[in-house]
Design a protein that fits this description.
- This protein is mostly helical and 454 residues long.
- 59% of the residues lie in helices and 5% in strands.
- The protein is built from 18 helices and six strands.
- Strands 1-2 form a two-stranded antiparallel sheet.
- Strand 1 and strand 2 form a beta hairpin.
- Helix 3 packs across helix 8.
- The longest helix has 37 residues.
- It is elongated.
- The two termini are 52 Å apart.
């Protein structure tokens, strides 16, 4: 085991079983870049507070910047014997610059170090996932634009309901993704990485020194200065709160649910029974036994991953529910579900952004389904309402007409004017021909006014 950040109080080495059980390196190495950035901020604070000399600052900051660049370039190698990523980075810094590195943890605890890193990670990941959601939104918009006039049978309870335009149908997913992107954007702004909590009670360094140091480091590291990164407002809340993790997991679970519903529609539409769409071979797999099979595995996995996203959210909610203030080691367990959920969502958004534009619509199969007369029953009832009949009565009249059609196995379109007039004097073949038309049905719906999505 590499050198730890603690140990002076202990007379025995940690039991090897506990070493393995408590190690977080496999998970928190994801935070390496954010941890080094946080340490760069911190050494600047130490300099502002005159707790390190100018020479020590140059050595510490220079060494940290080298590690920062190594992580960004992919040449950084984690020492797997380290307790966690924070220890690993400190040990590497000590090897680079010597004993000056031992001053790095003045006025800092891993408690506030960890929450700073996770907030920084979460802030950037929310912004990235939001942009990916917008990219998928734009790809769906591209499909809508190419198939502007396509009309589909719409469903409720997975039963034929009314005809609907592809534009109106797919725009529902645009609305969902727009909300997702906005939710992530707002979350990214609201997450405020802060310095100065110490273990729980704060530090002996003035708050304004933290603010000044942060602004300087952002400029030096090429990071976008964010006024929401500043000295801590409440040290107890800062080290013990994981609301931002729970909010991120909730937002990601909601996106996962939206993507799962989109995938379910596409899976159903791609079946032989529906045959509305053809999925590109690049996003499907075959069977090891049945040569004819083409399975929508990419969509099924996205649908299946929703359970993981829900589970990740519930695991952190459950973990946090009984913790006393302030920091408890249980909170180490927030990172694996957080990293997992972000990876799942980012991967899914990227896959769907490539898959969606490749979808081919089978217009012949769709038009065949649009011949179902039940799709126009509501339109026919509305026609009677326009003639002055009460809706309840119109509903009954058309219901009786549909029942007669089914019982006698005769299409309404093929009934004579005399047969239609038995149900209402306003019904005849001219009316039926006009109303039992998908284009007329869609155009007659005037209450929907799609908004322009930003």
């Amino acid at each position: 085991m590499a050198k730890k950040l603690w140990g002076g109080r202990f007379s025995k080495k940690t039991d090897p079983l506990l070493e393995e059980f408590s190690s977080s390196l496999d998970v928190d190495k994801e935070l390496a870049l954010y941890d080094v950035a946080g340490s760069c901020f911190h050494v600047s604070v130490l300099k502002e507070a005159n707790l390190i000399s100018a020479a020590e600052y140059r050595a510490m900051y220079g060494g940290l910047k080298q590690i920062f660049q190594a992580i960004k370039s992919g040449t950084f190698k984690v020492d797997e014997s380290s307790e966690d990523i924070h220890s690993d980075i400190q040990n590497k810094l000590e090897k680079k610059i010597g004993t000056a590195a031992l001053k790095l943890h003045a006025a800092r605890s891993r408690n506030d170090q960890i929450v700073f890193d996770v907030k920084f990670y979460c802030k950037e990941s929310c912004a990235e996932a939001g942009l990916l959601a917008i990219d998928l939104l734009e790809r769906i918009q591209g499909v809508i634009d190419k198939s502007e006039d396509l009309i589909l049978p719409g469903y409720t309870h997975l039963q034929h309901a009314q005809s609907i335009s592809l534009k109106n149908y797919f725009s529902a997913y645009l609305e969902m993704l727009a909300r997702d992107a906005e939710r992530l954007k707002n979350l990214a702004v609201s997450i405020r990485p802060s310095l100065g909590s110490g273990a729980l009670a704060g530090t002996n360094i003035d708050a304004d020194k933290y603010a000044k140091a942060i602004k300087n480091v952002c400029k030096q590291l090429g990071l976008v200065y964010d006024k929401h990164i500043f000295a801590v407002e409440n040290s107890v809340d800062n080290v013990s709160d994981r609301d931002f993790v729970i909010e991120a997991l909730s937002a990601l679970a909601i996106i996962g649910m939206h993507l799962s519903r989109l995938c379910e529609d596409l899976i159903i539409w791609s079946t032989k029974e529906f045959g509305f769409i053809e999925l590109d071979d690049a996003f499907c797999t075959g069977s090891s036994l049945m040569p004819q099979k083409k399975n929508p595995d990419s969509l099924e996995l996205i649908r299946g991953n929703t359970g993981k996203l829900y589970g990740n959210l519930m695991s952190v909610l459950t973990m946090m529910k009984g913790l006393p203030l302030t920091y408890n080691r249980d909170m180490q367990l927030d990172k694996e579900p957080l990293f997992s959920s972000f990876k799942i969502i980012k991967d899914e958004l990227k896959i769907l952004a490539k898959l969606i534009p490749t979808i081919k619509f089978n217009k012949a199969a769709i038009e065949k389904q649009l011949e179902d007369e039940s799709l126009y029953a509501t339109d026919l009832a509305h026609y009677l309402v326009e003639k002055g009949i009460a809706f309840k009565d119109a509903h009954t009249i058309i219901g009786n007409l549909v029942r007669f059609s089914l019982k006698n196995n005769i299409a309404i379109k093929k009934m004579s004017d005399e047969e239609l007039a038995q149900f209402s004097k306003y019904l005849n073949q001219g009316v039926i021909k006009k109303i039992f038309d998908p284009v007329y049905s869609v155009k007659s719906k005037k209450s929907v006014k799609p908004r322009k999505l930003k």
